[in-house]
Write a structure and sequence with these properties.
The complex is a heterodimer of chains A (161) and B (385). Chain A has 161 residues and is an alpha+beta fold. Chain A folds into two domains: 3-40, no CATH class; 54-139, 2-Layer Sandwich (Alpha-Beta Plaits). Chain A contains five helices and six strands; from the N terminus they run H-H-H-E-H-E-E-H-E-E-E. Chain A has helices spanning 3-10, 16-23, 27-40, 79-86, 112-123, and strands at residues 62-70, 91-96, 103-109, 129-136, 142-143, 146-147. In chain A, helix 2 (16-23) packs across helix 3 (27-40). Chain B has 385 residues and is an alpha/beta fold. Chain B has a seven-stranded mixed sheet with strand order 2-8-7-6-5-3-4, with helices on both faces. In chain B, helix 4 (68-82) packs parallel to helix 10 (268-280). Chain B is globular and about 60 Å long. Chain B starts with 6 loop residues before the first helix and ends with a helix. The chains are: A alpha+beta (161), B alpha/beta (385).
Chain lengths: 161, 385
């Protein structure tokens, strides 16, 4: 992967000037490259990774991973059904997977009931949905490459040869 | 209880530096750019191998020479990387870091009165360990040659009593390294005068703009070189204390003799982890190296922009900017920077008086830390321009 993307993937707020210094490139070239990546969709968006465990009163307290079994549609396969499912704003991620189930859907809601209701009233009764298996997320250890434990003290001696 | 301490130990380490270090350690909220070890944790796969070996009950002594599979791995690594062939049985010794290896080789070869050439500024232990072994360190000032040792400088300082030279490249504290052509010329001088080459290449895997050249790969150098490398820097295994020496049979045998009496063997857990590092660690080294490189390029650009002249170092994770433009001495600069901005750097004089007017900045620190430290250095410099 291009080093510019590597840097931005780690820190979405890295400035063009800083990236240019890190890679000994001209700031203008870096800017152009980033614009191009944004245009073609290689860079989809920039966001902060929030540790929701530390924030009370959030709208998405509960997360569930739902495996969905689908009866594929003639000529369309899974595409249309997947689109219907991921169009719901409660669905934050949607994947086609191998194995016993067909789709893995990640749903976020205010509480247990909200999510269960969504599955019961909106998801399970969709045409072509054969069945679902819902797993509620109990604890997040690591997400997007970030370990969510509280950062421990810097362990190195402050000065050494 | 007067004078119980041996004279030669009493005179070790300039007290000025020690006092400065104690000051840094006693302060809170310091951003330290004075750390001589990686800011990365040992990659999990390597740690896991160490942990697993304990679970499996590997807790006893190993062979004095070191775990056989580690020695095999070391020789394989040297063959693959440098096309260097060493025998794991007789030409390889696993040591407690390169530090122990250097101590061993000096004690193995020095007779009273023997001289050891040490290009300075250099890593702090070379001189003292030479003296402890009963030798005479001959410091060669490289400050007027871009901090590089040259054939000319060597010729000037070699005499009949010169036993060995300690080369270290990429260098701590300056980060300089050498290309094949330069090393070739140095090698010729050493062979001509029959001076043993003690080559500390512990930062070899962290060479950025060109491929590191191992000294024993030079023509006829292998029989005249003791090669040192370790796991501390490249694999972020400083605390594990594992290094190794490869060299001529007789020297390794002599080193092993001392080692078996004083140390017995390196910790088995560390050796097992190191063996794993050689098998699976390459991609982690590549990742860390890429990160160091970015920081290197960033910090050199920034320091020069601030008016602190600094060339792009070719290896390790140190930059060695000149602070003469401030009119302050290395120690004054470091003290004031610490007091006024709570940023710690190491005064160049800690590595030799020839480095007066320079400071060592370690970029083994997160980008955030580096940026904040540079911001504070910029503020500091406003007063002293």
């Amino acid at each position: 992967m291009d080093e510019i993307l590597e840097i931005l993937e780690k820190d979405g707020r890295a400035s063009v000037e800083d990236i240019a210094k890190m890679l000994r490139k001209k700031p203008l070239d870096v800017k152009k490259a980033i614009k191009q990546y944004e245009k073609e969709g290689a860079i989809l968006k920039y966001k902060a990774v929030i540790n929701k465990d530390l924030i009370k009163d959030s709208e998405s307290e509960v997360r569930a991973l739902i495996e969905v079994n689908i009866i594929p549609q003639k000529d369309l396969g899974f595409e249309k059904i997947a689109e219907r499912i991921y169009s719901f704003p409660e669905v934050t991620s949607c994947y086609l997977i191998s194995g016993t189930y067909d789709l893995l859907v990640v749903v976020e809601g205010k509480n247990l009931h909200t999510v269960s209701n969504f599955v019961a009233e909106k998801l399970s009764c969709l045409e072509n949905v054969r069945g679902t298996a819902t797993h509620f997320l109990l604890k997040k250890y690591k997400e997007d490459g970030v370990i969510l434990k509280q950062k421990s003290e810097n362990k190195r001696i402050a000065i050494s040869y | 209880m007067k004078n119980i301490i041996a004279n030669k130990v009493q005179v070790m380490q300039p007290s000025g530096i020690r006092a400065f270090f104690d000051l840094v350690l006693g302060m809170k909220e310091v951003i330290s750019l004075g750390v001589g070890e990686p800011d990365f944790v040992t990659p999990w796969q390597i740690r896991e191998a160490g942990i697993y070996s304990l679970e499996q009950g590997f807790t006893s002594y190993t062979s004095n020479k070191g775990l056989y599979k580690l020695r095999l791995g070391i020789c394989r690594y040297l063959k693959n990387k440098y096309n260097l062939e060493y025998c794991p049985e007789e030409e390889t010794l696993v040591t407690v870091g390169v530090s122990e290896g250097l101590d061993l080789v000096l004690r193995a070869i020095i007779n009273p009165g023997d001289k050891v050439l040490i290009p300075v500024p250099s890593y702090v232990s070379y001189g003292p360990v030479t003296e402890l072994a009963g030798g005479i360190p001959v410091y060669i000032d490289t400050s007027k040659d871009g901090f590089k040792i040259t054939p000319k400088l060597l010729e000037k300082h070699i005499d009949k009593k010169t036993k060995a030279v300690i080369l270290n490249y990429p260098t701590n504290p300056t980060g300089v390294s050498y290309r094949r052509k330069e090393l070739d010329q140095i090698n010729k001088v050493l062979l001509k005068h029959k001076v043993l080459c003690i080559s500390d290449e512990v930062y070899g895997d962290l060479t950025y703009d060109f491929e590191h050249v191992a000294f024993p790969t030079l023509p006829k150098a292998k029989e005249n070189t003791v090669y040192f490398n370790g796991f501390s820097k490249a694999y972020a295994m400083t605390g594990w204390r594992v290094g190794f020496a490869c060299g001529p049979k007789e020297i390794i045998a002599a080193m092993t003799k001392i080692h078996q009496y004083t140390i017995m063997c390196v910790s088995i857990t560390s050796q097992m982890a190191a063996a794993e590092a050689l098998v699976t660690g390459k991609r982690y080294v590549q990742q860390m190296k890429r990160e160091y490189n970015r920081r290197r390029q960033f910090i050199v650009a920034e320091l020069n922009a601030l008016g602190l002249k600094c060339s792009l170092p070719q290896g390790a994770f140190y930059v060695f900017p000149c602070i003469k433009s401030t009119g302050l001495s290395s120690m004054e600069f470091s003290r004031k920077l610490l007091d006024e901005q709570k940023v710690a750097v190491v005064p160049g004089t800690a590595f030799g008086s020839s480095a007066e007017g320079y400071i060592r900045i370690s970029y083994a620190s997160s980008m955030d830390n580096l940026k904040e430290a540079l911001r504070r250095i910029a503020l500091f410099l406003q007063k002293y321009r």
